[in-house]
């Protein structure tokens, strides 16, 4: 029995395009983001992949990406579970600010620390460590059991929620995960061993 899990960061959002800190704010996909999500679905369809269940966040850009992927693999209407446990990292007081504007206001070094440290949150927001604290229990209790039951699972979520998940799945250090960038709209296909370790990984660029 093959356990298969596909992770995909949402396509470019309107706020990605404008270089804004987004976090839990809820912009939709840009035109480019819609195209990226459709392309992700086409690449998965080209592998002959279909899904048994999908998970996504409570934010529209991830939900829209999930829906477009499922349309492209011929599964519109597939059971999709939405939960804020998979939401993007909350950027707190940075949310809605242009990244250049944030650097001017708080200083380049401070903004870099907030963006790239593992456990230092921005004011009113979450660190990557905080994000992992809500993502990983959800993965262990809700997502992973579906995959280990032999179902093919899609998770369409966000750069930081998926990085937190990948850190645990791939056994990465804090330093390694901070250097890992996830492209918008690029699926990562994992085949899992019976002990939940990774048997095979394929990034569909």
UniProtKB/TrEMBL annotation:
<protein>
    <recommendedName>
        <fullName>2,3-bisphosphoglycerate-dependent phosphoglycerate mutase</fullName>
        <ecNumber>5.4.2.11</ecNumber>
    </recommendedName>
</protein>
<dbReference type="InterPro" id="IPR001345">
    <property type="entry name" value="PG/BPGM_mutase_AS"/>
</dbReference>
<dbReference type="InterPro" id="IPR013078">
    <property type="entry name" value="His_Pase_superF_clade-1"/>
</dbReference>
<feature type="binding site">
    <location>
        <begin position="9"/>
        <end position="16"/>
    </location>
    <ligand>
        <name>substrate</name>
    </ligand>
</feature>
<comment type="function">
    <text>Catalyzes the interconversion of 2-phosphoglycerate and 3-phosphoglycerate.</text>
</comment>
<feature type="active site" description="Proton donor/acceptor">
    <location>
        <position position="88"/>
    </location>
</feature>
<comment type="subunit">
    <text>Homodimer.</text>
</comment>
<feature type="site" description="Transition state stabilizer">
    <location>
        <position position="158"/>
    </location>
</feature>
<comment type="pathway">
    <text>Carbohydrate degradation; glycolysis; pyruvate from D-glyceraldehyde 3-phosphate: step 3/5.</text>
</comment>
<feature type="binding site">
    <location>
        <begin position="22"/>
        <end position="23"/>
    </location>
    <ligand>
        <name>substrate</name>
    </ligand>
</feature>
<feature type="binding site">
    <location>
        <begin position="88"/>
        <end position="91"/>
    </location>
    <ligand>
        <name>substrate</name>
    </ligand>
</feature>
<dbReference type="InterPro" id="IPR029033">
    <property type="entry name" value="His_PPase_superfam"/>
</dbReference>
<feature type="binding site">
    <location>
        <begin position="115"/>
        <end position="116"/>
    </location>
    <ligand>
        <name>substrate</name>
    </ligand>
</feature>
<keyword id="KW-0413">Isomerase</keyword>
<keyword id="KW-0324">Glycolysis</keyword>
<dbReference type="Pfam" id="PF00300">
    <property type="entry name" value="His_Phos_1"/>
</dbReference>
<feature type="binding site">
    <location>
        <position position="99"/>
    </location>
    <ligand>
        <name>substrate</name>
    </ligand>
</feature>
<feature type="binding site">
    <location>
        <position position="61"/>
    </location>
    <ligand>
        <name>substrate</name>
    </ligand>
</feature>
<keyword id="KW-0312">Gluconeogenesis</keyword>
<dbReference type="GO" id="GO:0004619">
    <property type="term" value="F:phosphoglycerate mutase activity"/>
</dbReference>
<dbReference type="InterPro" id="IPR005952">
    <property type="entry name" value="Phosphogly_mut1"/>
</dbReference>
<comment type="similarity">
    <text>Belongs to the phosphoglycerate mutase family. BPG-dependent PGAM subfamily.</text>
</comment>
<feature type="binding site">
    <location>
        <begin position="159"/>
        <end position="160"/>
    </location>
    <ligand>
        <name>substrate</name>
    </ligand>
</feature>
<feature type="active site" description="Tele-phosphohistidine intermediate">
    <location>
        <position position="10"/>
    </location>
</feature>
């Amino acid at each position: 029995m093959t356990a298969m899990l596909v992770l995909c960061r949402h396509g470019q959002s309107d706020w990605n395009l404008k270089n804004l800190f987004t976090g839990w704010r809820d912009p939709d996909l840009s035109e480019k983001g819609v195209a990226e999500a459709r392309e992700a679905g086409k690449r998965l369809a080209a592998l002959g992949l279909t899904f048994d269940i999908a998970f996504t966040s409570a934010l529209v850009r991830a939900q829209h990406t999930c829906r477009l992927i499922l349309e492209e693999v011929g599964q519109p209407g597939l059971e999709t579970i939405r939960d804020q446990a998979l939401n993007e990292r909350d950027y707190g007081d940075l949310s809605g600010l242009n990244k250049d504007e944030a650097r001017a206001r708080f200083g380049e070094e401070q903004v870099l620390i907030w963006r790239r440290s593992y456990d230092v949150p921005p004011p009113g927001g979450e660190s990557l460590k905080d994000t992992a604290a809500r993502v990983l229990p959800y993965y262990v209790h809700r997502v992973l059991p579906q995959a280990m039951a032999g179902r093919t699972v899609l998770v369409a979520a966000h750069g930081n929620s998926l990085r937190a998940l990948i850190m645990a799945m791939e056994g990465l250090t804090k330093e390694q995960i901070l250097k890992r960038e996830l492209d918008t709209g690029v699926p990562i296909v994992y085949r899992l061993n019976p002990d939940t370790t990774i048997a095979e990984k394929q990034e569909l660029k």
